[in-house]
């Protein structure tokens, strides 16, 4: 979280998102939101919902600051991704688990499984920035070796 605060501080200070990607923030917001729901529907898991609710609030601030300082084309792309991943996907996941499983325990387990999968996505999302950097580096360096 400290590293993210550092990057957001740079974005706000320079009034530009520069080469930063919004996908890690968006994926973290998605994971935190669904973990908050998991903590609410699972009996006795109030700490999970409290911690992830705070994390979701912080990520909402980060995504808002990113959108505020992003150029127009990046702003539109980010809004589309946010609306798909952080609005439509949670609604679909919650509706699917509530309609498919009437038992509270099964519903809680299925939501936990979805959240665990999203943790993998959340921690893998910074790799999207590395892939684009690697491809640019490869395109620049490889022709010199041929």
From TrEMBL:
Keywords, sorted A to Z: Membrane, Repeat, Sugar transport, Transmembrane, Transmembrane helix, Transport
Pfam families tied to this protein: MtN3_slv
GO molecular function (one): sugar transmembrane transporter activity
Localization terms from the record: Endomembrane system
Keyword Cell membrane: no
A GO CC term attached to the entry: membrane
Keyword Transmembrane helix applies: yes
InterPro entries xref list: SWEET, SWEET_rpt
Segments traversing the membrane: 23-40, 46-68, 80-101, 121-142
Topological category with respect to the lipid bilayer: Multi-pass membrane protein
Family note: Belongs to the SWEET sugar transporter family.
Name of the protein described by the UniProt record: Bidirectional sugar transporter SWEET
Annotated organism of origin: Eutrema salsugineum
């Amino acid at each position: 979280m400290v590293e993210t605060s550092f990057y957001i501080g740079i974005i706000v200070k320079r009034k530009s998102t520069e080469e930063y990607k919004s996908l890690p923030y968006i994926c973290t917001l998605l994971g935190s939101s669904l973990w908050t729901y998991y903590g609410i529907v699972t009996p006795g898991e109030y700490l999970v919902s409290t911690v992830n609710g705070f994390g979701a609030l912080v990520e909402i601030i980060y995504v808002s600051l990113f959108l505020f300082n992003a150029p127009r084309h990046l702003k539109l792309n980010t809004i589309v991704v946010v609306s798909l991943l952080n609005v439509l996907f949670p609604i679909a996941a919650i509706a699917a688990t509530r309609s498919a499983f009437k038992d509270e325990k099964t519903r809680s387990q299925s939501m936990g499984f979805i959240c665990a999968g999203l943790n993998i996505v959340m921690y893998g999302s910074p790799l999207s920035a590395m892939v684009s950097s690697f491809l640019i580096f490869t395109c620049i360096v490889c022709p010199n070796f041929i």
